Every structure is written in C-alpha cells, then in structure tokens.
Amino acid sequence: MENLFTIGEVSKYQNISKQTLIFYDKIGLFRPAYVDPHNGYRYYSASQIDYLDTILIMKKIGFSLNEIKEHMRSYNIDSSLAVLRKQVAVIDRQIQELHLIRSRVLHRCEQMEESKAYRKNDSAIFTEQMEVRHILFQEVEKPYTLKEISIATKKCFAESFREQLPIFFQSGVIVPFQHVKEGRFTEAKMAFLPVERTDKVQNIMRIPAGLCVSIYHVGDYLSIGRSYQKLLNYCETNSLKIISDAYEFCINDYLTSHDESEYITKIVFYVEKSEQ
Questions:
Q1: Homologous superfamily of the 99-273 domain (CATH)
Q2: Of 54, 73, 130, 171, which has the fewest Cβ atoms less than 10 A away?
C-alpha cells in the first residue's frame, strides 16, 4: 500500500522479528496503522517507525515493556526527562552490583588458581594467620547427612539472593570438633556462605582472626576423612592444640566441576601451641 510499510519491511528496517511486532500489537504497545480485513496483514505508517525507535531505545536503556507503555500514553520533554533521570539511578545501582559480582568472581578464580598447587600434593599441611571473616549461616538439621547439608546451603543462597547480600559465591560448612574426633567427618551442623559484614540480616557470624592449620582435600566429599586424619596427626606431632570446630571452605565443587575427583575443600582448624 502507498505510504505504508508491511510488517516484513518494518521487521527488516528495525532489525526486530515479526513475532515481536505481533506481540507488541497484542499488548497494545505498538499497533499497526492499518490491518487488512481480508487477510489480516499489518501495515505501518512512516511516523510509526519513529515511534518504534523510541520503544526500542527505551527497551535498550532498561525500561520494561509496561513502563514504556505507560510512559508513551502521553509524554513530553518534562516527563521524558523525569523517567530518564530515574533510569540513570537504576543503571548506577546495576553498575555497582556488577562491580561487586565481578570482584566476587575474581575472588573465586584466585582461590581456584591458588589451589592448583595442592591438587597433586593433597598431603601438604600449612599454618597461616587468618583474618576476621563473616559468614551467613543456616543450621543443618539432624541427622546431618549430605541431604540436610545441601538443603541448608540452598537456604543460604536463597536468602542471600532475596536480601541482596554481598556474598562471595562460595559455600562451606562447620563440622563440630566432637564429630571429627568420633570419625563423623561429614556430619556438619552448620552450612554457610562467606559474606562481607552486613546488618541486613541476623544470621551473620563473625569468624575471628587467629592462628590456623589447614589442608586442601582433593576428591569427593565422602573421602574427606583421610585429610582430617592427616590434620589431627599433624597437630599432635607439632604440639598444636585444636581450639575450634572445623571450617570447610569449598574451593572447587559442583559449581565449577562435574567431576567429583576434582573437588577441592579447604579444611581449617584454629590452633594454639600446647604447653609442654
């Protein structure tokens, strides 16, 4: 038709699918100027293509289709300036969140790189001075099997996403020292996520600074007992008194590998020199 564009032409000019244009028509966001009553073909005017530009630009900026539809009912320079300034604030928050996510991902990469040295020698035990840490925790329900641990961990992740907490995309568990002494190495009583200090929720625990002894366990979780035994023997041989429960930090797990033989768990005990 003269001075009208077919839906195929508009799709080509604007690099947008016909299905999207049909959807925009159905929701009342962008309706054709004319619909042929005989075959249902849609046709658009030249001025509508400019209107579609505005829709696509607003969508690219980050507005939802409902926000665009509401704004374009009746808009002018003042209303456009107001919504754009509001969107700048939204974009600034997104940038801040992306910077935070980027730093967390880099932190995870650095941990995985650091653990490479221990993959071939998982017998290496070392002492280190730990800094203060904070964790978001959930108690593990009895009988403390891997199922209950998994549920508690998922509760931590769900809460962290819901409350937008600054977590480090890493999980861990706390195994009571009594369980370790009894050989119940996989029976953790608490699951956690390392997190920056925050007052947004109550279930945040502060892990103090102090002298620690650590080992990287390489392999599936059910075999972790052999690494615990090495730690216990090391502490006894070197006159180190264990003064804490065991903290396990997952370095490589189901989030980064499908192969359980590649799993790496850092086990940490706080210790002090035994009096002779």
A1: Regulatory factor, effector binding domain (3.20.80.10)
A2: 73
pTM over 0.85: no
Domain boundaries, the chain: 4-75, 99-273
CA distance 229 to 147: 24
Kindly give, in sequence order, each residue whose CB lies less than 8 Å from that of residue 74, ignoring residues fewer than 6 positions away.
none
**Is there a contact between 265 and 248 (Cβ–Cβ < 8 Å)?**
yes
Best CA proximity match to 234, nearest among 187, 205, 274: 274
* pLDDT tens for the chain, residues 1 to 276: 678 999 999 999 999 999 999 999 999 999 999 999 999 999 999 888 888 999 999 999 999 999 999 999 989 999 999 999 999 999 999 999 899 889 888 988 888 887 777 666 667 899 999 999 999 999 999 999 999 999 999 999 999 999 989 898 899 999 999 999 999 999 999 999 999 999 999 999 999 999 999 999 999 999 999 999 999 999 999 999 999 999 999 998 888 888 998 899 999 999 998 775
Closest alpha carbon to 169 in 93, 255, 262: 255
